[in-house]
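Pilot study result, target chain (219 residues):
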Amino acid sequence: MATFKTEGIIVQRRNFDESGRLLTILTRDHGKILAIAKGARKLTSRKGASVELFNHCKFLIASGKSLGIVIEVQVVKHYPNLKSKLSKVGQGYLVLELIDKFCAQNIEVPQVFDLVKETLEVLERPITYPQRKNVILAFKYRLMLLLGFAAPHMFGLREFPRHFGLTDLSKVAFLRPIDREIKLIERKIDELIEKTVESRINGNVFLGQLENLARVPNR
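Predicted structure:
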């Protein structure tokens, strides 16, 4: 059985058989792939803690007929700060959900991997919820550009594409765009996303509920 090495971010995981996990992994050099981590749910498994959502890992994977099999896994980064706060987790889940919905299996899109990695790294930092909202909005916009579902300036706002499409995400967090324009562009992008995937985005719903309950801290 042939094997290959790759680096990837765990986008989704589900129970598989009695003790395994079925992982959806976004890799830079193989696109989105599915692989089984056998025995990962066993208490004695060394793989269990490594195959958590968001984790950026190095993998050794054996090629199967339809699914890969994880032979070895080593965590590169596990984003503990992102996982420590409910609002950050919600924003991170939104990123992973959009990747899972938009990226086809085994289609290499290295720029998307780089975008996800950059987004998670910025969300890991000690920035406020409104600053993270800037980052998520820029992520959505850039993802749609990269996958060909949007074009620069298609929303009719001069400043938004320039700032949110070209500036490093670490700098986007500290931009202070006009609130009215942000709400308008957010609504238009979300409408385009939901029209494209023909379903509601659960991450948006969850974050909206958090905001309505005034449970999202501003610090």
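One observation from the pilot: The chain has two domains: 3-77, 82-212. A full batch analysis is planned for the follow-on phase.
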